[in-house]
Amino acid sequence: MAAPSLRVVEAGARVYRRTYRGSIISAFLNPMLYLIAMGIGLGRLVDASTSGPDLGLPYLTFLAPGLLAATAMQIGAGDAAYPVMAAIKWRKSYHAVLATPITVRDLVVGHLGWVTIRLTFVTAVFAGFMIVFGATTPVQAAMAVPPATLTGLGFAAIVTAYTARLKNESGLASLFRFAIIPLFLFSGTFFPVEQLPAGIRPVAYLTPLWHGVQLCRGFALDAVDFAVNPLISIGYLVALTGFGTWLSVRNLTRRLVL
Question: For the chain, is the Cβ count within 10 Å smaller at the N or the C terminus?
């Protein structure tokens, strides 16, 4: 990462040092509440049901890695939505940054660099809760953090590009309502994609979150095999991140420079 991009990362860290209290719930409490409510509460009903899905392992164990990837998606998309809109339209901090020698490319790379740090921290905390709840081992939890971070970074890159084109924030509400929430529900986080209707399964297999979920689940659990070769899923998410980064630079250049 070039020095100008590091200055953008530094700026993000300085702002976060003063605002981190507002993210404590999303970083610490949400993982614990998700695992308690869905993994333990609902999980007991699923495990006790004779008509429920035969997962071959406790529901909490099945659910936790999927929630790890889904949490990364939400953090990545969230950091690339309203904060980017605010920097463009309301606070106009991106205009101020571009008045310095920092270029749009430096700005985008630095923004995504800071999001990567945030994602690593949040997913590491979630992985710690997975260990505490007995869903996985410390080594396996640590192995699941990088693919979860990559999942969130892919969403951050593509959502940044999307936000850069918006004239108002109503498009962000539509994004979460019609894209992020359906992905959260139907990409294998809560139940195997194989239980979806046959016509919908191919769509689920093409979603970034499904690849992130299957990577996290494959690395975190000995009892679960990778649904596809992990290199394919990693390549998919890397390509998404690269394309989103390129598109973000293009869209922000058109919005703020040209």
Answer: C
